[in-house]
């Protein structure tokens, strides 16, 4: 998978890809992430990328021309499955959307800033708009890092044990069950007996039941 991220602040975005699971996925060449500084596509010597909004009002708007130049250059080089704009007024991100994106070959992610981008960018170039929640960040960079993290860990070969992504919370519409590790007893606090029994079928049943109970108490909306 190839991810092209268009941003005004690449420094805000790079470190999540330089450690741990994402770093390894890049080293293993399972995924390639390219950053494009939108200022490099500015048409004036101030490297300007935003301007006042027509009609007046507070807040700057990202101009269409630098974004058009960057997206058009990328599109001339390969086909993209989706051109995603991260924005607080997009569709709410969830595991279903992460799964869908993880199957794609090439995507562009455009990070917004200030009051957002000129609406014509959204009308002409964007194929998918995603919000990571009902709150506003200073820019789309952290949101796109979150989207990339959740997507990349789903690609086969990224996690050591592939089943571990399949048993995550939300992957089957439920929260994940409780987990325990050694010691089996600590200060008198015991691990549920069944998990030590070696009886795989019963353990599986216990986990299903625990996941259901946990979902019902914490996130009943998921069961509706
Ligand atoms: N940019 C600013 N806030 C955002 C959010 N909640 N989701 C996605 N992009 C954003």
Provide a compact summary of the structure.
The protein is an alpha/beta fold and 224 residues long. Helix content is 33%, strand content 19%. It has helices at 11-14, 20-27, 64-77, 95-102, 119-124, 141-152, 163-166, 200-218, and strands at residues 2-7, 32-37, 50-52, 60-62, 82-92, 106-111, 128-131, 185-186, 189-190.
Tally the beta strands.
9
Apparent shape: elongated
For the biggest sheet, the summary is: 5 strands, parallel
Superfamily at the CATH H level of the largest domain? SPOUT methyltransferase, trefoil knot domain
Strand coverage percent: 15-25%
- Gap between N and C termini: 34 Å
The helix-strand sequence is EHHEEEHEHEHEHHEEH
Helix content: 25-40%
Name the average pLDDT: 95
Protein structure class = alpha/beta
* Strand order of the biggest β-sheet: 2-1-6-5-7
The CATH topology of the largest domain comes to: Alpha/beta knot
Discrete helix count? 8
Question: Care to describe what's here?
Answer:
The chain is built from 8 helices and 9 strands. The mean pLDDT is 95. The chain folds into 2 domains: 2-152, 3-Layer(aba) Sandwich (Alpha/beta knot), CATH 3.40.1280; 169-223, tRNA(m1g37)methyltransferase, domain 2 (Trp Operon Repressor, Chain A, Orthogonal Bundle). Helix 4 packs across helix 6. Helix 4 links the parallel strand 5 and strand 6. The protein has helices at residues 11-14, 20-27, 64-77, 95-102, 119-124, 141-152, 163-166, 200-218; strands at residues 2-7, 32-37, 50-52, 60-62, 82-92, 106-111, 128-131, 185-186, 189-190. The protein has 224 residues and is of the alpha/beta class. Helices cover 33% and strands 19% of the residues. Strands 2-1-6-5-7 form a 5-stranded parallel sheet. A two-stranded antiparallel sheet has the order 3-4.
